[in-house]
Amino acid sequence: MYHTIPYDLEIGKADLKGISPIDFNPDSKAINAVKNLYSKLKKLKLELFDL
User: What distance in Å separates the CA atoms of residue 49 and residue 42, rounded to the nearest whole number?
Assistant: First the structure.
């Protein structure tokens, strides 16, 4: 499986404010990419291990 997390200025902004990126902007490009990766991994787990 191949997946990339895009460069996202919102991550740096959250860091400067001391806030987690998902709390700062849950709809940012990077957070959406992580959510998408989570969904793919969850689906793969179901296919491989929950027979």
Answer: 10
3-state secondary structure the chain: CCCCCCCCHHHHHHHHHCCCHHHHCCCCHHHHHHHHHHHHHHHHHHHHHCC
In angstroms, what CA-CA distances link 26 with 21, 30, 34? 7, 9, 11
The pLDDT tens digits of the residues spanning 1-51 come to 788 999 999 999 999 999 999 999 999 999 999 999 999 999 999 999 876
- What are the residue boundaries of the structural domains of the chain, listed by start? 9-49
If phi > 0 it is left, if psi is from -120 to 50 it is alpha, else beta; for residue 18 that is left
CA 51 to chain centre: 27
